[in-house]
Amino acid sequence: MKAELVSAIPGLRAFAVSLCGNSDRADDLVQETLVKAWVGMSSFTEGTNLTAWLFTILRNIHYSDYRKRRRETADPDGVMAARMVTPAAQPGHMDFLDFNAALQKLPLDQREALILIGASGLSYDEAAEICGCAPGTMKSRVNRARNRLAELLDMDAARVAESDFAKARADVD
Amino acid sequence: MRLSYEEPMVNKTRNNPSRSVVVGPGHKEQSADNDLLGKVFVRRESGRRQNLALMERTGSAKFSDCSEGVPPRAAAASLLGEHIGKELRGLYAEVVAQPVPERFLELLNKLEAGAIYLEEGTPKPEGTD
To answer: Which residue of A has its CA nearest to B58?
Structure first.
């Protein structure tokens, strides 16, 4: 079991980092997941997907922390939480909003759907089981996530293009 | 995959056969755009989407001229979708490729040795912070 857990760690870390956008927090999540997995080993069915089982544990820890933090900061809409992840916008500069920051702006359910389907290599069925929803729900979350992300990235690029264009115009005139 | 773009400009382009390569008064402006594209490209690796947005902003007519038959919005949408997929897999793969941090190996050794014991449902083991 120990060897299997070790070989699952890189995937767990990748899932955690893309889920919470912060590598320190991600490694804390992985640590908690490993401890819970070790203790609850008996509930793992041999022969099933260990990675999917570990992802489920990690996801549940993340969700309960997320809810707890929102309660503690009295931030029911998650406005502060969103602000903490994403640095303030400086109009005209692209560097502040990279892909990861845009990803962190997605609602949690959409973000995890996109990561599980778009990067982790798990199937819709496996991802749906991890998130406790129907595969169809999974699909619509992935679609919404992609649309929202496209909007965020495009808006951002458009703002930069506009200011650069104005500058170039000024240079030419 | 669906992206949130409006109706492609296929019909517009098709119904307007008179639109061809712009020459004359537009020429100066076009060279300014080219400089601009260069600048944006240098600034950031993933300049492609900025490039696209720029083309959209500064005259999609030129964009459709240079890539005949491809509706600019649909092209932009598919490139953006591709970009999202690539960035996502890149982010993931980057972490997967990292070596397993020592702290996890130590943790598993301790768990194996029975040095850490906790009841299921306890949120955090003591002394692991």
So the answer is: A165
Q: Which of A18, A32, A146 has the CB atom closest to B124's CB atom?
A: A32
**Tens place of pLDDT per residue across chain A (173 aa):** 889 999 999 999 999 999 998 899 999 999 999 999 999 988 898 888 999 999 999 999 999 988 888 777 665 555 555 555 544 444 433 433 578 889 999 999 999 999 999 999 999 999 999 999 999 999 999 999 999 998 888 776 676 677 767 777 777 76
For this complex, say whether ipTM is above 0.85. no
SS3 B9: coil
Answer whether A31 touches B (CB < 8 Å): yes
- A80 in reach of chain B (CB within 8 A): no
Does B81 contact A34 at a Cβ distance shorter than 8 Å? Answer: no
Mutation site for A-interface testing, chosen from B28, B52, B104 by largest number of A Cβ within 10 Å: B104
C-alpha distance from residue A38 to each of A35, A156, B33, B111 (Å): 5, 44, 59, 7
In angstroms, rounded to a whole number, what is the distance separating the alpha carbons of residues B54 and A99?
Answer: 18
Q: Which of residues 135-154 of A touch B (CB under 8 A)?
A: 143, 146-151, 153-154
**CATH of segment(s) A1-85:** 1.10.1740.10
Domain A87-173: CATH class, spelled out: mainly alpha
* A35 neighbourhood in chain B, CB within 8 Å: 107, 111, 116, 118, 125, 128
| Contact assignment for A10 to B100 by CB distance below 8 Å | yes
Domain ranges (residues) in chain A:
1-85, 87-173
